Amino acid sequence: MPKTLYDKIWEDHVVDQQPDGTCLLYVDRHLVHEVTSPQAFEGLRMHKRTVRCPELTLAVPDHNVPTTDRSKGIVDTESKIQVDTLRNNCKEFNIQLFDVNDKRQGIVHIIGPEQGFTQPGTVIVCGDSHTATHGAFGSLAFGIGTSEVEHVLATQTLIQKKSKNLRINVNGKLPLGVTAKDVILKIIGTIGTAGGTGYVIEFAGDVITYLSVENRMTICNMTIEAGARAGLIAPDEKTFEYFKNRPMAPKGDDWNKALAYWKTLFSDKGCKFDKEINIVGKDIEPLVTWGTSPQDVSPISGTVPDPEKETNKEKKNAMYRSLEYMGLKPNMKISDIKVDTIFIGSCTNGRIEDLRVAANLLKGKKIAKDVTAMVVPGSGLVKDQAEKEGLDKIFKEAGFQWREPGCSMCLAMNDDKLKSKERCASTSNRNFEGRQGRGGRTHLVSPGMAVAAAIHGYLSDVRKIN
Amino acid sequence: MNKFNNIKSIPAHIPLINVDTDMIIPKQFLKTIKRTGLGKSLFYEMRYDENGKVVKDFILNNEPYSKSKILLAGKNFGCGSSREHAPWALLDFGIRCVISASYADIFYNNCFNNGILPIKLDEKAIEELSDYCKRKEEIEIQLENQQILYGNKSIKFDLDSAKKKRLLEGLNDIDMSLKKTTAITEYENKIKKNKPWISRNDKS
Predict the structure, then answer these.
(1) Within 10 A of A310 (CB to CB), how many other CB atoms are there?
(2) What are A308-313's contacts with CB under 8 Å, separation 24+?
(3) What is the pLDDT of residue A466?
(4) Of the candidates A292, A302, B10, B166, which lies 20 to 30 Å from A66 by C-alpha distance?
(5) Which residue from B82, B105, B199 is facing A197, i.e. has the nearest CB?
(6) CA nearest to A250 within chain B
(7) Distance from CA of B108 to the nearest CA of A (A)
(8) Taking CB atoms and an 8 Å limit, are A318 and B203 in contact across chains?
(9) Binary contact (B18, A193; C-beta < 8 A)
């Protein structure tokens, strides 16, 4: 029987299946960060359990780390305790750690692929919902809670029930200035933040095929914002090329065996999806979010929607609440929204290609007066590469701050946060109330759109940068 | 994990859709290395103003809702991050059961690992219950019979049988999975042969 990509990976990882469909699923790769792991390690100690396969787990501090000078260590006491706890746990349980001052340190979803720890056809989990990112390489990757982190550490498996199959085809070609970020915002705007609940989404179609692997990561990263725990893209030649010579990728004979296996990872012709959605690539414009849910999207040429036109009472109330929080009026032009802060970074858009796009548009220009702008590279290696290419100089000359790698202002657990009512054009993934700091107002955009906003001081059309 | 027994409580109704985990427990409280103590920070930005003062008209700040064990919420409850701090905060506050039309998948699973029952009902039933909530009267959740009793009425709810068993018996997942160690070892031996690169030969 023809199978979907998800069916294939799933079936290949079932260790045990109960009559009701509950499975014990093998986990090939486990990523750990400092925020969602302390209680899991504590649980192991309490029950005198060990880590079953320490070599299949890789740890990195990313959420709490400062992005400014790190020579003095972490000043915030609680953050320091959490990072120290991760270090001690890794030592005690013999888990590899990229510590704060390691060149390879960075956002967990950027360092996994960068090292080749992430691989096609694997089951990858992490106590972090943006684990979906790794699906861009054809791995079944999803976020788990801390109790499940403990379960994986102890057993190298997870208790799971299979999700349904949803395929989203993005057909045709993207217009100039429209990027992977706009594609995923368009998808979330179309199906809603619960549209993918209960499904694993496979992204397919010409647009997806055409995208680079790093851009595909942006798409899969925000699958969770569409409600699906995992997003998948079938690996292809670009994917295989990406992994060649990565430090933790298979070598020699293993490489050949892995490659042969990876080439079987696609949805068979004639396979059945429970649901299929088609998106027309050429109809997508550069998008921004206006509200406090990632589904609240509008083209940059559009206006803030009017809640009075919404017939559903719950939605209408949610819109009023969002607009009040965001300090916006119905029907105002999106391009009349003035910004205070620009954030380029995060597991959504903190990779070298994102920084190249942004720097290329910024070259020879200055950011607007009264705008604060920062770039936070996704990893130490991304930062190094950018500096080799002179991108840091372009950013700094334009008025951007050039920071150390980490999650930073995406969730504002460190010092990088918005003040109340401060408005930010952000390349991150969530515009929830308080996400970037209490009272802070987030507009999700692509890196190019973040640059456009930085130059003009207003949400602006990237296609109009000279 | 504590066994889930029947619950009787006056439910607190938060009629918002898409309540995300950042709302349930904001990031500054994620710096803890414990599972307990988060109840006082549940829905922090709605419960306390910018100066840390109690917001008087927020439902959970008022009797009898400050002692509610049941939360009635809008659809897509618990969307956003995977933080288990969200169910930890609910539990620490005293919430043992959430009722909503739908949940985000990760949050839903996290509830069961903490002895919280997330009940899914259709939107019509939610509406009826929310009307009933205005009476400030107790409702009863019966897990064994999978029903909610309110006034002289009742509503049945669906639940996965394995998840129900875990709640009723307070079972620990890890204990159950460790009983399958032989199957795990067999699986590992199989992949060592078929997919040797999975066992990280790059390290040797």
Answers:
(1) 15
(2) none
(3) 77
(4) A292
(5) B105
(6) B197
(7) 10
(8) no
(9) yes
